[in-house]
Amino acid sequence: MAIATINPATGDTVKTFTELTESEVRDRIGIAHERWRSYRRTPFAERAALLHATADLLEKEADDVARMMTTEMGKTLASARAEALKCAKGMRYYAEHAEEFLADEPLPDPSVVGASRALGRYQPLGVVLAVMPWNFPLWQVMRFAAPALMAGNVGLLKHASNVPQCALYLEDVFRRGGFPEGCFQTLLVSSKQVEPILRDPRVTAATLTGSEPAGRSVAAICGDEVKHTVLELGGSDPYVVMPSADVDSAVKTAVTARVQNNGQSCIAAKRFIVHTDVYDEFAGKFVEAMRALTVGDPTDDATDVGPLATEQGRTDVEELVADAVSGGAKVLCGGERPDRAGWFYPPTVISEITRDMRMYTEEVFGPVASLFRVADLEEALEVANATSFGLGSNAWSQDPDEIERFISDLEAGQVFINGMTVSYPELPFGGVKRSGYGRELSSHGIREFCNLKTVWVG
User: Fold this and answer.
1) How far apart are CA 233 and CA 437, in angstroms?
2) CA atoms of 226 and 114, how far apart (whole Å)
3) Helix residue spans in 74-138 (DSSP H)
4) What is the CA radius of gyration of the chain?
5) What are the 10-residue block averages of pLDDT along the chain, 458 residues in total?
6) What confidence score (pLDDT) does residue 316 get?
7) Which residues form a coiled coil (predicted)?
8) Residue 162: strand, helix, or coil
9) What's the CA gap between 42 and 50, in Å, rounded?
């Protein structure tokens, strides 16, 4: 894929970019490595001041940054601005808590190991490569960059090829925030250059958010090189509604959970698993609410759902829907692309999904919801867990015993009860099964990019 800004609302190419040569990439890795040798020794207070200054710039420029995001990948202006401000919040969180999270962990009685002093100390790993997707072009990057920089690492960013302006902005805003040259660099390169970067001995770790095939590739290369990785991959998140739930609240939240970011979110609820006692009520209200959403220009405040980010992305969604329909699934609303320029797809609800349909287990990366009717809690859990993914999960119930079952038995990195899955700086974020491994955010996220060194003093 060429490195270019293509407006998904029109299909027009706005700007193209030149890919870095292999020699230029090697030079930039060298700059990063040399910078890390000095930056790793800077005190936490100095790093925090730089991160706060960068957050100040991002907040000041949030409106312009939002328009850039919307132009590159089609999210609504309101959601783009919220993303920019969320990044600033995440930066301040790590600026304020990193020293606490990475404080030495002394053994209370070192004499038990024959020492006068014994402890664990967190130290930065070095140059970290981040391979990032387009759907949250700033927030996905900041979940890695803020903790990595506060831990004393330096970062290299290989962003998705369709959001180059966002990628370059991130390098620029860190530079203007005062970070020394080489602390954070954007590499405008294609996917084929990722492997030689990962195999460069000066690159010590990698983090990837993206598809399962991309994660497998990065993990295999880093495994061969014995380098640490954090992977956040796809999700086909369940959204379970039980009879004791507040159905109106569950429906309202379900709509947001499915169409957030135009339906292009790994943690979006995708499979709506509803107890038979409330299925008809939930389905009727959910379909009505999805049908009422306004699809259109993402720069228009009246728009609820903008275009999908790429033409191929829309094609992928259409193929999954067509596969389900050919197998007997029922389209309750949507299901056909509108006759207009751009890569739009309507909010869609499909029922009567069976196990032989791809949609039963595969992730639909667009505003398409699948409805399942279940007889009881056990069947709800069975359907919820019948996927190779395990990123987020949602369950609605007022029954304490049911809630505990969902917390313990939903196979996911996250479970949200009577709400929708959201990423917060304060909470660990990540998945199980083929949704990846490792954690971002919270104290766990910053420690992923550190060596926990054991110290023993006789």
Assistant:
1) 9
2) 32
3) 77-101
4) 23
5) 94 97 98 98 98 98 98 98 98 98 98 98 98 98 98 98 98 98 98 98 98 97 98 98 98 98 98 98 98 98 98 98 98 96 98 96 96 98 98 98 98 98 98 98 98 98
6) 98
7) none
8) coil
9) 11
Position of tokens 């009717």? 373
Report helix angle 164-176 to 44-60, nearest 10: 130
Q: How far apart, in whole angstroms, are the C-alpha atoms of residue 438 and residue 434?
A: 12
List % helix, strand, coil for the chain (3-state, nearest 5): 45, 20, 35
Which pLDDT does position 1 carry in this prediction? 67
What does the alpha-carbon distance between residue 179 and residue 33 come to, in Å, rounded to a whole number? Answer: 15
Bridge partner list, 105: 120
Predicted confidence at residue 361, as pLDDT, reads: 86
* H or E stretch at 176: helix 164-176
Contact 272, 284 (CB under 8 A): no
The letter for the amino acid at 134 is W
Q: What CATH number is given for 4-233+435-457 in this structure?
A: 3.40.605.10
Q: What is the CATH T-level fold of the domain 237-424, as seen in this structure?
A: Aldehyde Dehydrogenase; Chain A, domain 2 (3.40.309)
Kindly state the tokens that stand for 451: 């060596």
Q: Do 359 and 311 touch, CB atoms closer than 8 A?
A: no
In angstroms, rounded to a whole number, what is the distance separating the alpha carbons of residues 394 and 44? 37
Residue 438 · residue 229 · CB < 8 Å = yes
Contact yes or no for 140/134 (Cβ under 8 A): no
**Domain regions of the chain by residue span:** 4-233+435-457, 237-424
What CA–CA distance (Å, rounded) separates 441 from 431?
13
Q: Is residue 159 a contact partner of residue 166, using CB atoms and an 8 Å limit?
A: yes
Which residue carries 């008809």 as its tokens?
280
- Give the position of tokens 């391979």: 131
Strand arrangement of the beta sheet that strand 348-351 belongs to: 330-333, 348-351, 368-374, 269-275, 237-241, 394-396, 416-417
Is residue 368 within 8 A of residue 348, CB to CB? The reply is yes
pLDDT of residue 353: 97
The sign of the torsion formed by the CA atoms of 53, 54, 55, 60 equals: positive
Tell how many helices (H) and how many strands (E) occur in the chain. Answer: 14, 20
Torsion 38-43-49-55 (CA) sign: positive
- Residue the block writes with tokens 């209370």: 108
Type of residue numbered 131? V
> What residue has token string 């699809």?
295
Measured CA to CA, the distance from residue 368 to residue 362 in angstroms comes to 12
Active site residues: 232, 266
